[in-house]
Every structure is written in structure tokens, then in C-alpha cells.
Give the backbone structure.
Amino acid sequence: DSTRGEVHFMEGDITQIPSEAVVLPMNADRYVGLVAGLVSDTIAQYTDKDGSEVDDLIFPSKEDLSSEPDHGVGQAYAKQLKGIRTPAAWKYVMSAVIQEERFDEVIEDNIYRALKDALRKADQLRIASVTVASLRRSTPLSSASRDGSARAARRAIEEFLVETPKTAIKTITFVSTNDRTHRAFLRAWGIRQIIKKGRNLPKPVGP
């Protein structure tokens, strides 16, 4: 199969969409938002660990983050789910660090760098399918709009695919929790018509 880097868009529950890895936004203070919390709760159902133990299992430690330049902002971290079977059949949880503290400003460049690093690491791990949660944080100081975040994501993917033409990643699926974010990603890729809500859309052709 020569398919590489196909991009799809869905609106729905990311915990039910099969992929080998799920990419989640987080900050260097290890605060997890709604979607990352949902992923953690889902994984907890299939282990004998409680919430904080699951977080330690799937997210980078504060110590690891604090030792990195800029506290890891703009980087991604992969944790393997050994022996844990989830409905989505994830093998890895990947944390894309897009801000230092919970209420820090989120800028589009952080989203671009963190997602691109997540794709690089997924490729190194020979991961074939990736689901990506919306990497925008809604904070009072966020300068990253839905449309700006989606454009940053497109830039990260396009650059990664140019730099890694033989990537192991076959599909990248963006999963939004609401219609406004879903439409922003469609706009960023030049898709103006939704075929069916919650259904995969084909990779757009051309710029």
C-alpha cells in the first residue's frame, strides 16, 4: 500500500475512533483539558489504576517537562500503552505541549511545532494511523483562534510530509468535539462542503 499521509476530519468522540496513536494537547504544568481527561478516564476503565496513576502512565512527568528548554513547549512526548486494550486500540498516547501553564497565551507557532514534533515521533515509532484532538486551548489569553490553529496544523502536516515523503504514517485524522472547530479545519484545508457530520472526508487535492 503506497498510501501515505492522508488527512481526514471527523466530529465526535475521539475515544471511539480507531488509531495506533492519539495526540492530545497539554501544558508543561501537566494540566489536561476536557479531551485529554476523557482519554485518561477511558484508559482507566481498562486498567486497575486510579486517575492520577493513569495520568502518570500516559503523560510526561512534570520533572521531565521542567528539564526541557521552554519546559517542553513545542515538543511532543509518546507513552506506550503496554497491555492495555482500549476501544480505539491505541498503542501510544502522545502529548503535544502547547503552553507552559494553564492560563498562558497559546500561540499558533506552539501548535505548529508541537504537532510537527508529534508526527516526527510517530513516524520514528512506525505508527501507521494517528488521531489528533483539537490543539487549541480556549483561554482568556489565547491568540490562537480556531482558524489560526487549523492553519498551523495544516502547515505542520504539509511540512512534515515534504520532509518525510516515505513516512510510515498512512492516515492523520483530526477529531473535533464541536461543529465550529470541525468547520475551521475544513476551511483550513479548503473544504467548503460537509458530506456528512462525523464522517471521514477525503484528502483535498491541491493547495
Remarks:
- Residues 138-143, 194-207 have pLDDT under 50 and may be disordered.
